Amino acid sequence: MSGHRRLRIGLVGLGRLGQIYARDLATRIPETRLVAVADPAAGVAAAAAETYEVPRWSTDSLAVLDDPDVDAVVIVSPTHTHRDLVIAAAERGKTIFCEKPPALSLDETRAMKDALTRAGVFFQMGFMRRFDAGYAAAKKRLAEGAIGTAVLFKSTSRDPYRTTLEYADPKSSGGMILDMGIHDFDLARFFMGEVKTVHAIGGTLAYPELDTVGDLDNAVVSLVFADGRLGMVDLSRNGIYGYDISTELLGTEGTLRIGYLRETPLYVMKKNQIAHDTVPHFMERFAGAYTAQLQDFARNVLQGRPAPVTIDDGLGALRIAVAARESQATGRPVDVASV
């Protein structure tokens, strides 16, 4: 394919993240052209189409999938819609990018995998942390043996405030362990390989109103990897001070620590006090990673390269999340393979 061809993209879902994807696909990635957008909410797709000069918009997702001018579909709609959209896109022979989590259950994810296999279409899963400069550099340094063998994986995800009750509802998002934790579980597999057992504890401790939808606001998940190495993930909705995402890999010859909390490179120093600001939320912390991820997707398709993040990666991370959720509910360790 010539270097000048651009992938014609149809975007489904224009929520918080969908808006960022629309901007990137339309203005920041030379390999893509945003030709169609859809969102069921009144006026949302029309507004995005006007902002980014997108020729076609709809309140119906299928209009994007049926569009003959769309080469590739980018799915950023709510998790509970992913299965049907991915299967429909696959049946129409479209190239697909789907945001995490793949779906709310393993059965739905396996149904997606079957449809993708049958159709033989290109599919890339969205786990943007892999495309963040810090995580990408750590992966490279680990492979080079910079810290010897990594023996302990430790990952923290803290949101500065709770999500809406509507979003927190496990029926919509899968709940905190699945929706938030899946990033950390993906990183666990990315750096350390498959997980054998998980043991999770959690509670609704900071925001009692989350009890009304059946979700948690804090959880700690211990992991034992297939080869006996160890891991720990802690999740919180009450970071309060800022958006705090960090990962440590403790090795036999050193440690890699990924992440930062200070957003602006400035300290304000006064008597007995040194202060700095903090990262506000995911849109700021992972702005570069989201763009890099979509650009990678477009380049893989245009250059005929395999997807670096597959439906199997989605399935693997989801399986750990489901096992952790089960462990938290029963109070017992859960064998991941049994899920």
Write a compact overview of the structure shown.
This protein has 339 residues and is an alpha/beta fold. The chain is 37% helix and 24% strand.
What does this structure look like?
This protein is of the alpha/beta class and 339 residues long. Helix content is 37%, strand content 24%. Strands 12-11-7-10-9-8-15 form a seven-stranded mixed beta sheet. A six-stranded parallel beta sheet has the order 3-2-1-4-5-6, sandwiched between helices. α1 links the parallel β1 and β2. It is globular and about 55 Å long.
Number of self-contained structural domains: 2
CATH architecture of the largest domain: 2-Layer Sandwich
CATH class of the largest domain: Alpha Beta
SS elements, strand count: 15
The amount of helix comes to 25-40%
Provide the structure class: alpha/beta
Strands of the widest sheet, in order across it, are 12-11-7-10-9-8-15
| N-to-C SSE string, H for helix and E for strand | EHEHEHEHEHEHEHHHHEEEEEEEHHHE
The residue ranges in which pLDDT falls below 50 over 5 or more consecutive positions are: none
Instruction: Name the average pLDDT.
Output: 97
Radius of gyration: 20 Å
Termini separation comes to: 43 Å
Query: What form results from the Cα inertia axes?
Result: globular
Strand percentage lies at 15-25%
Total of helices = 13
CATH fold category name of the largest domain: Dihydrodipicolinate Reductase, domain 2
| Largest sheet descriptor | 7 strands, mixed
CATH superfamily of the largest domain: Dihydrodipicolinate Reductase, domain 2
